[in-house]
Amino acid sequence: MIKTALQWLEDGSLAVAIRQSAWLYPAFEILHITGIVLLVGPAFMFDLRLLGFAKKIPVLTLANYLLSWSRRGLLVVIPSGIFLFITNAATLGFDPV
After folding, report:
1. Please, what is the end-to-end C-alpha distance for the chain in angstroms?
2. pTM for this predicted structure
3. Residue ranges covered by each domain of the chain
C-alpha cells in the first residue's frame, strides 16, 4: 500500500516535470540548502551568544529575532524537500529491510 502511494507520487506529472527539467531540480536543491542554512544558522548564532559573544544584545531579544529566521527557513525546507522527495519517492520512501 505504501509502495503504491510512493510510486503514485513518483509517477505524478509534477515529479516527472521536475525530473525532466534541466533547471527545476537544481533550483529546488538550492532552495532546500538555503532553507537549511536559514534553519540552522540562527541556532549557531544563538550558541555563540550563549558562549559570550555579543554580550550587549539581551538573550531573549536575540532569541526572538533568530527564531523568526528559523521559522522562515523551515517554511522553505519543507516544501522544497517535498518536491525533491517526490522525484524519487519509491526509492527514498520505502526500505524493504
Report:
1. 16
2. 0.88
3. 18-85
